[in-house]
Amino acid sequence: WENIIQKGNAHGLGPIIYLWCLNFKIENDVPIEKFQGLYNQVLVLNMLLDHAHEIFSKELAKHGIESIPLKGLYLIKSKIYENFGARQLSDIDLLIRKDDLAKARAVFKTLGYWEKAELSTDIQRLCETPTPFEQINNKVLVDLHIGLNRKGSYNLDPIAIWSNSKDGKLSNGDFLIHLACHAHKHRSEEHTSELQSRQYLVC
User: Fold this and answer.
1) What does the angle CA 93 – CA 96 – CA 101 come to, to the nearest 5 degrees?
2) DSSP assignment of the chain, as one string?
3) Which end of the chain, N or C, is more open, meaning fewer C-beta atoms within 10 Å of its C-beta?
4) pLDDT of 143-182, one tens digit each?
5) What is the spatial distance between Cα 68 and Cα 93, in angstroms, rounded to a whole number?
């Protein structure tokens, strides 16, 4: 069980295993408290990130900046995962228009975020993901995107992406394309939780 717990934690599946145990009523056959601990940690962090997103998305909107959450936060907000703590989040990926990038960076500054380039080298090393902003006081990381893929990797029309979006969300088709691009980028280090995200969306 210790190996399963470690693997589950490494791949972000601890919460899913916990919820499955409850759903199939086998919690008495597994060390449920270990998986419950992982679930509780993820739930608290997800609530923290969601709260931060609510604050800065409203502030961005005040300045006329549209934004769309990507990846994990999209899945949670779209209720593709039925439980708010089922999908492990580590940061917030946010899509904005290229023309709004400078304004968005200024808004984040007013909210107390730091650009990674402005942090000391030692602190930059602590940032496991290449995120441009880190809010020091509560470890909220925001990764700003101006497209759904790396430059030059695929020819995705950003205008069409925004045209297809509705109510601050990507279309399911565009989101699936985004997940596929993300999987290709990290294909050698793919986490099982990302694969599961695509399975949920397709189903």
Assistant:
1) 110
2) -HHHHHHHHHTT-HHHHHHHHHHTT-GGGTTHHHHHHHHHHHHHHHHHHHHHHHHHHHHHHHTT---EE-HHHHHHHTTSSSSTTSS--SSEEEE--GGGHHHHHHHHHHTT-EEGGGS-HHHHHH--S--SEEETTTTEEEEEESSSS-TTT----HHHHHHH-BTTB--HHHHHHHHHHHHHHTGGG--HHHHHHHHHHH-
3) C
4) 888 887 665 556 677 888 899 998 888 888 888 887 787 7
5) 9
Tell me the pLDDT tens digit for each residue of 50-80. 999 999 999 999 999 999 998 888 888 777 7
Alpha carbon of residue 34 to chain centroid: 24
Give dist(CA 65, CA 59) in Å, integer.
9
* Residue 60, token pair as written in the block: 């961005």
- Determine the residue type at 25: K
C-alpha atoms less than 13 angstroms from C-alpha of 198 in its C-beta half-sphere = 15
Residue 29 token pair: 């056959």
Residue 128 predicted with pLDDT over 60 = no
Q: What burial class does residue 128 get, using C-beta atoms within 10 Å of its C-beta: 0-12 exposed, 13-18 middle, 19+ buried?
A: exposed
d(CA 115, CA 109): 8
